[in-house]
Amino acid sequence: MSEIQFCKTKLIFGKPIAFTPLVSIAIPTYRRLYLLREAIESALCQKKCSPYEVIVLDNDQSLSIFNVVNSFDPSKIAVYQNSTNLGMWGNMNRALELAKGEWILILHDDDLLMPNALQVFESLISSCNNQEIGCLAGGVELFFTGERKPLFDKWRSQVRFPISLKEYQGNEIIPINEKTSITDIPKFCSSFYRREYIKQIGGWDPKFYGYADVALILQIAKDNKLFTCKEIFGRLRVHDDNDSHPSKLWKSYPIKAAQRLLSCYVDESTIIGRGIYLFIERKYITALWKRQYTAEERRIYANEVLRLLNVKSVNRRFLLRNAWLLDLLSKLYGAIRPRLGSVSRLVFRGGEKRPWEHKGLIS
Question: Which residues have CB under 8 Å from 11's CB, separation 6+?
Fold first, then answer.
């Protein structure tokens, strides 16, 4: 965490707790005040659980956050401000230092906690026979705001589990090993990390850019300390300002970062390795569809993606087949869109040339 050692962080509202709680809820934020209030309210409204800590860490050097936090009881929340913008990963690493809980949950300022999240977590932890858990990841409930909405209303309460398992049994905590397959990475609003252990292994490493969370999860899995359960701890907001929005993927997931991640952690001979590798592929396939890029930018990016995938000997046809399928779905939606009326649109729209339709796109 050397990149944050020279940054000063000061308490600007509330006061730190005087005891060591089981759980700390840390809310890193940067200029999203219109969402921050909801996140704080969901953190403070936990029911039937032991005393816990709530801290907010602001990467913005203005004092505009007071417009939100002034309405909260200063005895129940501590708000810190960094002297410089540490970025998302640096801010989360600073949270590891400032929090006092045995466990820490990172609640991004656009997400929410279920009202019984801590109650359910405490029940699970008390019944797990002191297993060496580094991270306990549950599921999330998706909710959509802004223009990013599902095609059908029934998807609004879709639950996404970070782990694909054949079955869950009761409230059992399940270790992630070669009998399980990671299809996505655990979401922050539904993941409890053992704080001292995460500090010991280095926290979130900014050198992996947008893949720092993937790298950390892989390290935890490598140490046999990654566990999951069927419980829903958080609500994941899907909206136009998501850090993982397709319009931000190229900047957040540069090619070099993915190459570094694959070379450091991913072993395709394991189920977990293959799952993470497919996760990375999906990120890049999605990025190829960003609408604001010129044909030349798309050509360069597509070739870089193929070069990255070829590092692991992935068949080029796999990428093209996925591209063809997405193009087909896009054209189908473009054809039926006039008949849908006010039904929410898909992310992929018709009527636009796709990267591979430009001559000489893939060398």
Answer: 78, 79, 80
∠ at Cα 274 (272, 278), nearest 5°?
115
Average pLDDT over every residue of 241-248: 56
Is residue 189 within 8 Å of 107, Cβ to Cβ?
yes
List of domains in the chain: 2-250 (3.90.550.10), 288-357 (no CATH)
pLDDT digits (tens, 9 = 90+) for 24-42: 999 999 999 989 999 999 9
CA distance 249 to 242: 10
Cβ pair 204, 212 in contact under 8 A: yes
In this structure, the strands spanning 53-58 and 78-82 are parallel
* Proportion of the chain in helix, strand, coil states, percent, rounded to 5: 40, 20, 40
What tokens appear for 69 in the block? 């936090």
pLDDT in tens, 161-208: 555 555 555 557 888 866 666 666 789 999 999 999 999 999 999 888
